[in-house]
Design goal:
With about 120 residues, the chain is an all-beta fold. Helix content is about 0%, strand content about 45%. It contains no helices and eleven strands. The strands form two sheets. Strands 2, 4, 5, 6, 9, 10 and 11 form a seven-stranded mixed β-sheet that branches.
Length: about 120
């Protein structure tokens, strides 16, 4: 199994950048699809991005394409989400998640088995 700790959230003005990080403790991290989700107040948990086990493929929700970049370093058991050109609409608690199945196109949170504790991202206008 995989245990995840995510970090890097904070407060930025619109147009700014943040880089979220997720550290994994599982021995089989490199076998997992990794994803990022976000949960804004009053909203459903939303898929943001996913990356294949090797890092060779990525998948993003439309609202973040061109602004966010997901990456991973399997040697360090980490996954990151670089967020540029942030918008107030990006304000949410962000969670990293792990999926033991090698499918980056799962958008449903219930398809992911392991989750970080969440890190708050606040973007002000």
């Amino acid at each position: 199994q995989v245990q995840l700790v995510d970090s890097g959230g904070g407060w930025v003005q619109a147009g700014g950048s943040l880089r979220l990080a997720c550290a994994a403790s599982g021995r089989t991290f490199s076998s997992y699809v990794m994803g990022w989700f976000r949960h804004a107040p009053g909203q459903e948990r939303e898929f943001v991005a996913a990356i294949s086990s090797t890092g060779g493929s990525t998948y993003y929700t439309n609202s973040v394409k061109g602004r966010f970049t997901i990456s991973r370093d399997n040697a360090k058991n980490t996954v990151s989400l670089q967020m540029n050109s942030l918008l107030p609409e990006d304000t949410a608690v962000y969670y990293c998640a792990a999926d033991p199945w090698n499918n980056i196109y799962n958008r449903r949170a219930e398809e992911y088995d392991f989750w970080g504790q969440g890190t708050q991202v606040t973007v002000s206008s």
